[in-house]
């Protein structure tokens, strides 16, 4: 089929020339429209911001130079090729190995795999391995003879020899002998695997490099120099280049293993479910019903949405909650002529707060209640949920008034009329549709040109409407507390009831399986598998013929961002950043006088966890801090109970996700879906609202922790 429109194609003019001319007209029209709209709507913006944007364009060449340098460094060093040595030790048979290839190296990185457990070692009653690294210090001005220095590393052994675990320790010495001895109750043999690696720089240098890389990623995201997905990929590549420089370059297989595929599978499966669900008209129907329920009152509606999101996220994954809530919220705001960005940011903040209330609401809580050493200390599902639930209730009660105070001077409704807002959104949708068409054939080129002509016509209409709107009177300001919008919303109905029944059935089963996965340990299906299987079932039941339409609605940029973020966080962990934060926190706690140590420890763990979780992923940080806090509580010189420290860690790790846009997975997912609908919000827009909320909620949580553990003595 050949498309022909004599309105914009000449008689004998070649089609290619006409399409190129139309593309030039389209770009010119878009530039003119953006300039005219910016002049009319951005009179509040100052010239320094425009100069800043020009400077950001100039930094693109610097970014290319940095990428070239990273690639050069990465290609100069080979992958680490350290074969694993298989060995076995027993109480009567130890292992010893001489090292002769560690000249001019700063560190020894030793890795052992075996039936180990976490936590401190009780030398009197527990089985353990003793790893001794012997160093020979050469004679100097103060010593006339060579002195032998031995560094001990004690590793607890699992009683049933069942759990295989990989442990790593770095020694800042020039070793010559490694000895492994087993201290067991019987003469059993413990099988082990061991490898060692020489590193060229010290731990402090590695931490400094990791801090510079993390700061660079945040600069790229905060100032929007590049898209956040590209920023995460550049940061991960820079961290890999740094590992290559220090002599610890991982292989491609290792880097791929760093990616958390369960999270990616959960995101992908839920994206497919929501994409099919949106074809039923259910989101539009819910938006109109929510409007009728709130009777057009904005703030009661926002409070209801935030409260429901917080309650659901206490039992569901935060990502799942936001993937279901974001489309409904966007349609509701379009009906009420509100700016969806402010409402979405409020919702995702309360989603993160509600997720901290239970043991299954947020990944850090799941990691804590799954730790067997903490089970022995009395931190189980019931006690953890009861304590956290009470604290989060107090946080929620104070968060709603504070949110209203933050939004006091913000214009929640759009400045333009609803006709102009809908026309702008329609232009954006047509532009995105035209950009997604690949003009591989004559027919596809014709369709793309028709869409671009449609965009030009709509932009001309928008300019006329903007001129008319500017001549009219300005909108009245918001009333001090409640704004009531009087207009009749459109009567949205369910468009496909059969598909709705199928979607509700599958989604209900998926959510039910999420609950069972949290409470029934005999079900061996993770959240990612449940989401993937649910999407497959719905694809079969819905009889989707054009699968590419569904794939177009998947947020591939968000999935790629998480993949890059996982690699970045693991690479920073390999650069000792997370371990360094935990060790420095423990040293600060030990330096405090004993009568004030518990209060200072709660405050320090709380705020370090909150600030670190707003900058880095809270999952590896929580997993790293748990053994640090366990060892700290079992230290006889420190004498601290474990429960206050763990609860402070959980509060800080969960509430700290509200600090920045990439502080929690739900934040990124919500921003990606909003961007797909044409309402994306930047890092700074989220930071202006999320960071004050994080400070306030952490203050309330800190007061709750101090009141219960210092005032009431709930430490047992």
Automatic annotation (TrEMBL):
The chain crosses the membrane at residues 199-223, 230-246, 266-286, 298-316, 384-407, 498-515, 527-544, 556-578, 598-616, 645-674, 686-707. It is found in: Membrane. CDD domains: P_permease. One of its GO terms (biological process) is transmembrane transport. It comes from the Eukaryota. Residues 218-652 form the Citrate transporter-like domain. The keyword Chaperone does not apply. It holds the Pfam family CitMHS. The keyword Transport applies. Its main location: membrane. InterPro entries: Cit_transptr-like_dom, Diverse_Ion_Transporter. GO terms for cellular component: melanosome membrane. It is a multi-pass membrane protein. Keywords: Membrane, Transmembrane, Transmembrane helix, Transport. This is OCA2 melanosomal transmembrane protein. It comes from Scophthalmus maximus.
């Amino acid at each position: 089929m050949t498309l022909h429109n004599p309105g914009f194609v000449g008689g004998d003019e070649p089609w290619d020339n006409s399409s190129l001319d139309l593309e030039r007209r389209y770009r010119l029209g878009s530039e003119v429209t953006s300039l005219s709209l910016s002049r009319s709507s951005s009179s509040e913006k100052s010239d320094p911001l425009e100069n800043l944007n020009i400077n950001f364009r100039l930094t693109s060449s610097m970014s290319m130079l940095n990428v070239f340098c990273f690639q050069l460094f990465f290609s100069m060093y080979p992958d680490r090729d350290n074969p694993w040595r298989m060995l076995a030790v027993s109480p009567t048979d130890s292992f010893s190995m001489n090292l002769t290839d560690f000249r001019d190296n700063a560190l020894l990185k030793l890795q052992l795999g075996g039936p180990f457990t976490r936590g401190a070692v009780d030398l009197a009653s527990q089985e353990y391995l003793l790893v001794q690294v012997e160093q020979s210090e050469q004679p100097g001005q103060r010593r006339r003879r060579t002195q032998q220095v031995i560094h001990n590393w004690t590793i607890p052994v699992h009683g049933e020899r069942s759990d295989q675990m990989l442990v790593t320790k770095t020694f800042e010495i020039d070793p010559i002998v490694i000895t492994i001895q087993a201290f067991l109750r019987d003469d059993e043999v413990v099988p082990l695997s061991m490898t060692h690696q020489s590193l060229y720089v010290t731990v402090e240098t590695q931490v400094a490099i990791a801090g510079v890389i993390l700061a660079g990623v945040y600069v790229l995201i905060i100032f929007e120099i590049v898209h956040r997905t590209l920023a995460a990929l550049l940061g991960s590549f820079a961290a890999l280049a740094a590992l290559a420089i220090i002599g610890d370059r991982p292989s491609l297989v290792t880097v791929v293993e760093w990616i958390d595929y369960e999270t990616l599978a959960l995101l992908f499966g839920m994206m497919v479910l929501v994409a099919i669900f949106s074809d039923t008209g259910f989101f539009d129907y819910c938006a109109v019903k929510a409007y009728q329920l709130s009777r057009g009152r904005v703030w009661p509606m926002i409070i209801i949405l935030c409260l429901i999101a917080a309650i659901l996220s206490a039992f569901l994954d935060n990502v799942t909650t936001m993937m279901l809530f974001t489309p409904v919220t966007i349609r509701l705001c379009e009906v009420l002529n509100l700016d969806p960005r402010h409402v979405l940011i409020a919702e995702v903040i309360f989603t993160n707060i509600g997720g901290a209330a239970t043991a299954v609401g947020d990944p850090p809580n799941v990691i804590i209640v799954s730790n067997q050493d903490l089970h022995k200390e009395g931190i189980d599902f019931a006690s953890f949920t009861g304590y956290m639930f009470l604290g989060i209730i107090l946080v929620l009660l104070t968060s709603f008034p504070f949110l209203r105070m933050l939004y006091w001077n913000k214009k929640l409704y759009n400045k333009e009329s609803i006709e102009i807002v809908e026309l702008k959104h329609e232009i954006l949708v047509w532009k995105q549709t035209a950009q997604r068409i690949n003009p591989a054939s004559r027919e596809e080129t014709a369709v793309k040109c028709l869409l671009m002509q449609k965009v030009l016509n709509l932009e001309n209409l928008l300019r006329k409407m903007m001129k008319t709107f500017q001549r009219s009177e300005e909108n009245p300001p918001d009333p001090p507390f409640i704004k009531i919008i009087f207009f009749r919303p459109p009567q949205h109905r369910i468009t496909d009831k059969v598909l709705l029944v199928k979607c509700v059935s599958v989604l209900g089963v998926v959510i039910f399986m999420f609950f069972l996965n949290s409470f029934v340990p005999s079900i061996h299906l993770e959240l990612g598998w449940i989401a993937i299987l649910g999407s497959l079932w719905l694809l079969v039941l819905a009889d989707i013929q054009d699968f590419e339409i569904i794939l177009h609605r998947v947020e591939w940029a968000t999935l790629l961002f998480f993949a890059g973020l996982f690699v970045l966080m693991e690479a920073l962990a390999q650069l000792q950043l997370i371990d360094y934060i935990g060790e420095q926190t423990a040293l600060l706690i030990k330096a405090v006088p004993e009568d004030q140590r518990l209060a200072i420890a709660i405050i320090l763990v709380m705020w370090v966890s909150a600030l670190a979780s707003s900058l880095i992923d809270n999952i590896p940080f929580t997993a790293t801090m748990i053994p640090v806090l366990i060892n700290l509580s079992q230290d006889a010189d420190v004498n601290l109970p474990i429960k206050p420290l763990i609860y402070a860690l959980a509060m800080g790790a969960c509430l700290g996700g509200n600090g920045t846009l990439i502080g929690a997975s739900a934040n990124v997912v919500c921003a990606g879906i909003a961007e797909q609908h044409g309402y994306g919000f930047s890092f700074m827009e989220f930071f202006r609202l999320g960071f004050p909320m994080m400070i306030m909620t952490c203050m309330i949580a800190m007061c709750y922790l101090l009141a219960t553990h210092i005032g009431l003595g709930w430490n047992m």
